[in-house]
Design brief:
The chain is of the alpha/beta class. It is built from nine helices and nine strands. The strands form three sheets. A five-stranded parallel β-sheet has the order 2-1-3-4-5, sandwiched between helices. Strands 6-7 form a two-stranded antiparallel ribbon. It is rod-shaped and about 130 Å long.
């Protein structure tokens, strides 16, 4: 597997170990590279200058940063603080890689945000185990953050959906409150045309409609009844015709079925 294929292979995995070593000694970098060369899940990067370390870390996005303490121009302990202040590396594990095994220096390094302290004489097996451990912790943290972000987005979407549903229910409730509708069978007397209500009382149809709906009834005569009533009153056919024509002119433009005459 060539170098480019190996890098692509590691980047496609969510458990690959991407290491950035910041050390001014080139020989140390080559020794370190030799220790990792046989490991297919490890991708190694090297930075010799402290003033380029942040930019390189932002570019390659390492899962573990190995920081030497004895650096010209800027002490390695200061670099720990700078990595922690940098948004792209504030959660990246920083492992101090030093030839000094001093308790006070270790204490300062951990107080500044270092995740581990490894002396350069460490056994290869132990070194690989620690690098994989810290890289795995980094990936787990990324997964937790992604899961939390997805959960918050789902909660936000659920909140919006509930708000929309509540608004729809409110509008529906308001609409139903304004609607009264008669459905089913309504008993009506075949002779007097009164209707029987739910309490088994007979009442006028107009009174029943007014009680159970929002309709307001007006009374009038249809053309047929007008003629019948006019004859009973002794009016001539010509008078009935004139009276009908008069009522038709008085009808509003928007009227009910043809044949109704408003009173």
């Amino acid at each position: 597997m060539n170098v480019r294929s190996r890098v692509d292979f590691i980047r496609d995995r969510d458990d690959g170990v991407v290491i950035l070593l910041v050390d001014d000694e080139l020989i140390e970098a080559e020794l370190f590279r030799g220790l990792l060369e046989a490991e297919e899940d490890l991708e190694f990067h090297y930075c010799q200058r402290v003033d380029e370390a942040l930019a390189q870390a932002n570019q390659i996005q390492p899962t573990v940063i190995m920081q030497d303490l004895s650096m010209p121009g800027d002490h390695g302990l200061t670099m720990i603080s700078r990595f922690r202040a940098n948004p792209a590396t504030k959660e990246t594990p920083v492992v101090v890689f030093s030839g000094q095994e001093d308790a006070r220096t270790k204490s300062i390094a951990f107080s500044l945000g270092a995740n581990d302290y490894i002396v350069k004489t460490v056994d290869r097996i132990e070194l690989l185990a620690r690098l994989r451990y810290h890289s795995r912790a980094y990936w787990n943290q990324r997964k937790r953050e992604e899961a939390t972000r997805a959960l918050r987005e789902s909660e936000h979407q659920l909140w919006d959906s509930n708000a929309s549903l509540l608004e729809s229910n409110r509008k529906l409730t308001e609409a139903l409150a304004e609607v009264k509708q008669l459905t089913g069978l309504l008993p009506m007397c075949a002779c007097c045309r009164r209707v029987r209500d739910e309490e088994n009382y007979w009442s006028e149809f107009s009174a029943y409609v007014a009680k159970h709906t929002d309709l307001r009834l007006t009374h009038g005569l249809c053309d047929e009844c007008l003629g019948t009533q006019a004859e009973k009153m002794g009016l001539t056919p010509k008078q009935v015709e004139e009276l009908t024509r008069k009522f038709q002119k008085q009808r509003p433009v928007k009227d009910g079925p043809k044949g109704n005459v408003a009173s």
